[in-house]
Design a protein that fits this description.
This protein is of the alpha+beta class. The protein has 4 helices and 6 strands; from the N terminus they run E-E-H-H-E-E-E-H-E-H.
Length: 160
Amino acid sequence: MNARRVSDGDRSPSVSKPVTDAATSARMSRQKRANTNPELALRRELHRAGLRYFVDRAPIKGLRRRADVVFPRLHIAVYVDGCFWHRCPEHATDPKNNAQWWAEKLAGNVARDRATDAALIEAGWQVVRVWEHEDPQVAAEHIRALVRERAPGRDQGPTG
């Protein structure tokens, strides 16, 4: 069987995807890496709250993993995690086809998330993880509180 390389943002040369049927390949190729509906909803709420930020940016140099929303001066990195791809404790599902490969792939995603969190925290960053199913208004208010905490005395103006 032929194997294809997985395109998942932070590639691991040892991860090869088994050949799948055409319908599954087509469906998976339509998955967005950035600007997903949950990301857009959160960004709308953050903007509505008067916050300004950078989008789809590596928080620190040398870190190939990009955050969905970044407040660089305040060292706040926000990730909007998909329930399937990042193994949400409430909504994670286990694919039946190629189950072992998927188990390893998804476990690798979670391990990479934890390594990213650790690297950012060590560098003095506040990491916020928002699940795709969370209410964007609630998540935005939590982030706004963190911004206020990290930038006391600043109004709601630009925080990038």
